[in-house]
């Protein structure tokens, strides 16, 4: 059952932000860490130990940690490219076409993003920016309870559009030590030929540090569990990252015109990701709140991940009855969700008051599941309230910008005295001298 809250109750519970990197660690996770490491250890300390070991021992450490954590004895740390090429033929009917449809829309969307070098001569000489792609990018694709080929497409295609020379994938192996065919087929759909059957912190370590078999990358992108996120945090600086993505989240604002059955389906779809996923409905209609609550209970029966959904809805989900749509919008904007869906009579008008969300979904035909797979924008979006300052994964994540400074003699002579004065004010006399020497009679 999804609970119904007042606004004040929600502010003290589901709308309150906690750190995604300092969650309450479930007893099962604590027990697993104790079994693997032989002592009580925090997730951050466990990640630090894995990173240090992979950095020191390379491939041997990767194989050992995969055996200890995943219970899998890998024959090697690279998937045979022949498996990737053969994967599409192993898919159920229609799935390859769906992957290709999604890939085509994602590529077409990101190809429209304006990313280009520029120069100007209006400021004296020539100034500008040179935009160039990163050389090598590692895409982490979550596995665990379910393989996510969509995450491969959503991360790799913007990198390809940016012109990244080499893109590799790391993803957890199954119990048989092999990468699920649907992940390999997604790699084949976008022409990726290098896949590493590695998950967790050890995968991040391999991509960040490199080993005898795996060259290090310039940037690591893609969502993952707590251990992946902690590992990305700890290697940042040595390697770039896209962000520290926590559990996924959706907020829906709905009025009395919304379809309660559709809203319930959308909440259930969000909650099935993870026990820590957030699925929240904000509505001024008490009648709609009750109808959606009943629909959630009815539709939950028979879903394959019903236990995960139940935990998610009880702990992180809920329906909040607001005074009006304006209050619902203010609550949503303050929460700054990953996905913000507007199931109202006039969604575009409501959107004018909203500034902070990873993605805005207008109307009930633009439901969030389409964004997960085939709409076009990357589904890797800022979570945990980071939409206040962060953006969805896009082409700019895969380029570097170099400033171009090519001044002429006249502009130099005009600017140098001001530079010298500013340097003197900062106590940097060598800086001042370097400017003064250019213009001293």
From TrEMBL:
Substrate binds at residues 248, 270, 273, 339, 372, 426, 431. The active site is at residues 338-339. Its cofactor is Zn(2+). Keywords: Amino-acid biosynthesis, Histidine biosynthesis, Metal-binding, NAD, Oxidoreductase, Zinc. Zn(2+) binds at residues 270, 273, 372, 431. GO terms for molecular function: histidinol dehydrogenase activity; NAD binding; zinc ion binding. InterPro entries: Ald_DH/histidinol_DH (IPR016161), Histidinol_DH_monofunct (IPR022695), Hstdl_DH (IPR012131). One of its GO terms (cellular component) is cytosol. Binds 1 zinc ion per subunit. Pathway: Amino-acid biosynthesis; L-histidine biosynthesis; L-histidine from 5-phospho-alpha-D-ribose 1-diphosphate: step 9/9. Its EC number is 1.1.1.23. GO terms for biological process: L-histidine biosynthetic process. NAD(+) binds at residues 140, 202, 225. The keyword Zinc applies. Belongs to the histidinol dehydrogenase family. This is Histidinol dehydrogenase. It comes from Candidatus Promineifilum breve.
């Amino acid at each position: 059952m999804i609970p119904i809250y007042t606004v004040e109750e929600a502010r003290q519970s589901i709308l309150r932000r906690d750190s995604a990197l300092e969650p309450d660690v479930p007893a099962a996770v604590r027990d697993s860490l104790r079994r693997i490491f032989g002592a009580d250890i925090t997730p951050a300390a466990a990640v630090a130990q894995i990173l240090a070991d992979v950095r020191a021992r390379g491939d041997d450490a990767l194989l050992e940690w995969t055996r200890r954590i995943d219970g899998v004895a890998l024959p090697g740390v690279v998937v045979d490219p022949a498996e990737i090429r053969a994967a599409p033929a192993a898919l159920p009917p229609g799935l390859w076409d769906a992957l290709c449809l999604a890939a085509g829309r994602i590529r077409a969307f990101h190809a429209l993003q304006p990313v280009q070098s520029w120069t100007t001569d209006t400021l004296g000489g020539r100034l500008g920016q040179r935009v160039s792609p990163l050389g090598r990018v590692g895409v982490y694709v979550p596995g665990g309870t379910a393989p996510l080929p969509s995450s491969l497409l959503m991360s790799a295609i913007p990198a390809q559009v940016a012109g990244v020379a080499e893109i590799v994938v790391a993803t957890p192996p199954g119990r048989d030590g092999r990468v699920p065919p649907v992940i390999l087929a997604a790699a084949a759909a976008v022409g990726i030929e290098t896949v590493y059957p590695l998950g967790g912190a050890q995968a991040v370590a391999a991509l960040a540090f490199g080993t005898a078999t795996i060259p290090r990358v310039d940037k690591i992108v893609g969502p993952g569990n707590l251990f992946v996120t902690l590992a990305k945090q700890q290697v940042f600086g040595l390697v770039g990252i896209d962000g520290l993505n926590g559990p996924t989240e959706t907020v829906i604002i709905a009025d009395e015109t919304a379809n309660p059955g559709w809203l319930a389906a959308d909440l259930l779809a969000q909650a099935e990701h993870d026990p820590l996923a957030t699925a929240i409905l904000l509505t001024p209609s008490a009648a709609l709140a009750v109808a959606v609550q009943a629909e959630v209970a009815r539709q939950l029966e028979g879903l394959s991940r019903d236990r995960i959904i139940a935990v998610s809805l009880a702990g992180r989900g809920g329906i909040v009855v607001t005074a009006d749509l304006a209050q619902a919008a203010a609550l949503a904007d303050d929460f700054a969700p990953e996905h913000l869906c507007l199931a109202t009579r006039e969604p575009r008008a409501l959107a004018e008051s909203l500034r902070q969300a990873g993605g805005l979904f207008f109307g009930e035909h633009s439901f969030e599941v389409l964004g997960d797979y085939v709409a076009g924008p990357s589904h890797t979006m800022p979570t945990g309230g980071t939409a206040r300052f962060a953006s969805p994964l896009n082409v700019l994540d895969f380029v570097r910008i170099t400033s171009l400074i090519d001044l002429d003699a006249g502009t130099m002579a005009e600017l140098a005295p001001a530079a010298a004065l500013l340097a003197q004010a900062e106590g940097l006399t060598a800086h001042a001298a370097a400017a003064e020497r250019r213009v001293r009679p």
